[in-house]
Amino acid sequence: MADVGVAVVGAGVVGLAVAARLAPHAPDLVLIERNERHGQETSSRNSEVIHAGLYYPTGSLKARLCVEGNRMLYEQLARHGVGHRRIGKLVTATDDAELPQLERLLELGRANGAPLELLSGAQAVALEPAIRSRGAILSPSTGILSAHELMDHLLQAARRAGAVLQCRARVEAIERVADGYRLWLATPAGRESLVSEVVVNAAGLEADRVAELAGIDVDAAGYRQHWWKGSYFSAAAAKARLVSRLVYPVPGSVSLGVHAVLDLGGRLRFGPDAEHLPARRTDYHVDDSRAAAFGAAARRIVPAIEDADLAPDQAGIRAKLQGPGEGFRDFVIAEESERGLSGFVNLIGIDSPGLTSALAIARHVAGRLGH
Q1: What is the mean pLDDT of residues 10-17?
Q2: Surface-to-core class of residue 113, CB atoms within 10 Å of its CB (0-12 exposed, 13-18 middle, 19+ buried)
Q3: Which of 44, 202, 315, 342 has the highest CB neighbour number within 10 Å of its CB?
């Protein structure tokens, strides 16, 4: 017989949301995390933004689950007292050449169901006098939250329903057995194993590796992930009140562009940039020599920022299915019965808007498993 009904691999925000959603139906659920504690990688190293759903092709999982997740997230944050603020966002065109792209973004966001308003440059500057704008999109449903508080809440919810978190456990092998899947784990106590009827692979940066352990050819399946590093610089306290909302440029092809992001403490940061890590080496160092490049990017949207105002802050690494020079790639949320892996669910390429979409992803996974 299986040891547990469900094993969730990865205790980032998505894995935690899945565990909290499934645990009431599977109280013997185990959440497996390779780090010392939950949420130490991508989930805690990002902009902590609640996105509205502007940027993604209509009908894609990213569009649908972002818009759905936005509503679910605000409701749960308010109900459980998790720190957040619905501060809104401006996407600003800094010259006339960007206006057609801004209007296309407006049409896309509205088609996805995001509430948006098109502003003239004068209207945008009236709202945020420190920004540069020839026109802007106002997104009132964009906000910020405490990712750590959210993850702590989700873990507590999962535990109340009977789930167990096993940290410092790295999945090293997966074997198909009669009762499900035997997971071989490297732990401080040595090599251990458990058998689970269902496995949900929410391993984030290592999700493609875990899928490979289950016997999937990740290149043939299109599951190979690319690591992208994003660094942030924080602004001096004297400049922190220059903006009262999030301010984004018109997006690029790989990232949403270096943007002005506020946190719940009122701190102003700029970032992230997008640096491809072909060797997939974990590197969270922020190079202070990049201050000039960040200063130039920041001045595109907030002209009063000077290089001397910026100090290295934090960096995060995102696992994207999109490699350099490639186009849009959607989330992969796949129950792998067609590959002969019934009850094995892969969550691959869960980059932005993964934080916003986490609760909706969890509901989607539960539906795939019949809950």
Answers
A1: 98
A2: middle
A3: 202
